[in-house]
Amino acid sequence: MEISLRINGSAETLEVQPQVSLLDALRDQLGLTGTKKGCDQGACGACTVLSDGARITSCLALAVQYEGHEITTIEGVDHPLQEALVRADGLQCGYCTPGQICSAIGMLAEHKEGMASAVTEDDEVDELDEEEIRERMSGNLCRCGAYNGIVEAIKEVAG
Q1: Sheet holding 54-57, edge to edge
Q2: Where in the numbering of this chain does the 2Fe-2S ferredoxin-type domain appear (predicted)?
């Protein structure tokens, strides 16, 4: 099947089989290897990208589902969170970092829109404290355990 998408601001036309994941299309056909294949089951968040600004796990998304959508991978990200992660020592091996960054950008947009999380009290979404950040980022795993730095960086950017 031929599909058209906007990837990091550029129009792309891809020839894909219906069962090809968005992750595999990005990596194998476009050479965008910043998006990582971790578990390939949607459990680790390493493959997180943004679709029209919303975070998705690209290993579970079929490429054909995103016909006409704007996809942003880590290669297309230019966000203050990137520098904040370095300052906060929010990465170690770096494997999960692209997914963490894309997920955090999507999470910050969700929070700004007033979306509650599982720990939001009394439907008040005003404060993005450590508990809120940890809950909202819980779908992104870091085997190195750099969570404290990741949370610190997100708090810095959110503030």
Answers
A1: 10-15, 2-7, 70-72, 48-51, 54-57
A2: 1-77
Q: How many residues does the chain have?
A: 159
Q: Where are the domains of the chain?
A: 2-76, 80-158
For 118, how many CA atoms within 13 A lie in the half-sphere containing its CB? Answer: 6
User: Do 35 and 101 touch, CB atoms closer than 8 A?
Assistant: no
CATH architecture of 2-76: Roll (3.10)
User: What is the pTM assigned to this prediction?
Assistant: 0.95
The class of domain 80-158 in CATH terms is mainly alpha
The structure tokens 């906007």 sit at 6
Specify the DSSP element, H or E, that contains 14: strand 10-15
> Would you tell me how many other CB atoms lie within 10 Å of the CB of residue 127?
11
